[in-house]
Structure formats: structure tokens, C-alpha cells
Amino acid sequence: MTKTVLIVDDERDVEPLFKQRFRKEIRRGELELLFAFSGQEALDVLAGRERTDVVLVLSDINMPGMTGLELLSRIKQTPPPVPVCMMTAYGNETYREEARRNDCDGYLTKPIDFNELKAKIRDLSQPV
Fold first, then answer.
1. Exposure string (b/e) for 62-92, b if CB count within 10 Å is 16 or more?
2. Among 121, 123, 100, which residue's Cα sits nearest to residue 21?
3. What's the CA gap between 72 and 74, in Å, rounded?
């Protein structure tokens, strides 16, 4: 079964990076990566899909317009629940606390540890 992950970041160079790091999983049909380059684009992607298909939204915090923390809050307000992990280059405790208050499912610091991320995707997609 293919797992779908939505990656949200205003920096477009994340797309080739993630595709390269997950190339084996993509090639085997285990993983589908979707990309959005703003918070609003991410909401549009989720609105156009079965939300239950998405096992994880991975969002940058610092983006122009809607921040990743605002996106987190909006995603968590709309059922069904979708796990959301925040990623940032800054180890800001204020961001971490706000993310926790909004039911964040994880917090990754850039540069991303892709082995940790792969484990997180495996954990989130296990049947309950």
C-alpha cells in the first residue's frame, strides 16, 4: 500500500532533495510525495484528496503568508485528523511550545535526519 506524505516549504529546492532521499521507496511504490510551496497550497492539496490517504504533513515553520504553525492549527481543526510534523532550521523553544499546543505530531530540525523521518513515517502508518 502506498503511503502519501505532503511536504510544505516555500523553498522549492526541497522537492528534488526529498525525491532523491526517498527514491527507493518511491520506485517500489511504497511512498508518494506531494509538494506544496505555501500554507494555502497545502490546504488546497488536502481539500482535493482523501485526507485519510495522507499519513503525514511535514511543514516548514517559517514561510511567507501563512506560517507553518498557522497551517498546523488549520489542519488540526478539520477532520479527519492528519498527523503534522514541523520542521525548522531554528531550535526555537517558543515555536516548539506553540507546536505542542496545536497537537503537533513531531518536530524536526533542519538539516533533516532522513533516517529519523523514514522511521516516523513507518510509525505513523502502522494500523491502530
1. bbeebbbbbbbbbbbeeeeebbbbbbbeeee
2. 121
3. 6
CATH architecture of 3-124: 3-Layer(aba) Sandwich (3.40)
Task: Characterise 65 by phi-psi region: left (phi > 0), alpha (psi -120 to 50), beta (else).
Answer: left
Task: Count the residues in the chain.
Answer: 128
Per-residue pLDDT, 126 = 53
Instruction: Check residue 108 and report its DSSP letter.
Output: E
Which residue ranges of the chain lie beneath pLDDT 70? 51-52, 125-128
Check residue 127 and give its pLDDT. 46
Beta-sheet pairing, 106-109 with 84-88? parallel
Here the cell at position 105 is 505530531
DSSP string, 36-80: ESSHHHHHHHHHTS-GGGEEEEEEES--SSS-HHHHHHHHHTSSS
Radius of gyration of the chain (CA): 14
Provide the 3-class DSSP secondary structure of residue 98. Answer: helix
